[in-house]
Q: What sequence folds into this?
């Protein structure tokens, strides 16, 4: 759908917020046959949070996270 022109010949765009944050999840290999889940939150609107990595696991529909230990 085309945006309506303004009186100056430009268009107006309504800002729409899709998310308040970014959570990055990845699988990190720890051996030839095993991986661990790791996450990081690089952005979260209006929240002071640690920027480091967390290891996490999903058990019974719940997520458990612990501060990642770098080997």
A:
């Amino acid at each position: 759908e085309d945006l309506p022109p303004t009186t100056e010949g430009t268009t107006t765009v309504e800002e729409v917020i899709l998310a308040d944050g970014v959570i990055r999840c990845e699988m990190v290999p720890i051996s030839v046959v095993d991986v661990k889940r790791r996450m990081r939150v690089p952005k979260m609107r209006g929240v002071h949070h640690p920027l480091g990595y967390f290891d996490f696991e999903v058990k019974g529909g719940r997520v458990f996270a612990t501060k990642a230990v770098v080997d």
Summary: Strands lie at 21-29, 35-44, 53-59, 62-67. The longest strand covers residues 35-44. The mean pLDDT is 84.
